[in-house]
Amino acid sequence: MLSTVILPWVHYVAVLLMVGALMAQMYLLKLSGVPDAVRSIARVDRIYGIAALVVFVTGMLRVWHGGKGPDYYFHNGAFHGVIGLFILAALISVVPTLRFIRWRKAVDAGALPAEGEARKTRILMHVQLTLIVIITLLITMVAHGYGVH
Known about the structure:
Oligomer: single chain
Mean pLDDT: 94
């Protein structure tokens, strides 16, 4: 039951939480002139990071303890694409995270983020969201046998 019901459920809930947190951050960025919104972005970013970690861990557990086994996944080119895009999204997310930490400290000191920097951050977040959408397509293809050598 753990590998067939609970593990996929936790994985899917974490994906939804990750996307929801990213969407909340994008909305809060529109309010970057409001100190409380800037503080909230940093808190929501922690949720995003934790959810992404849970997605990765449960995804790897599903590889090792799922029905198809690791050989199926590790010999699937589309699966390699999933992992590569997930890592790319994680690397991209570092830039906004560092900005949010810096902004929170600046807001506590009485300054707000520059509009140009907020706009650039929104673009990075749109890229992350786009990567997540592509990842969901690729992993669906993997589940249906596409990408097998």
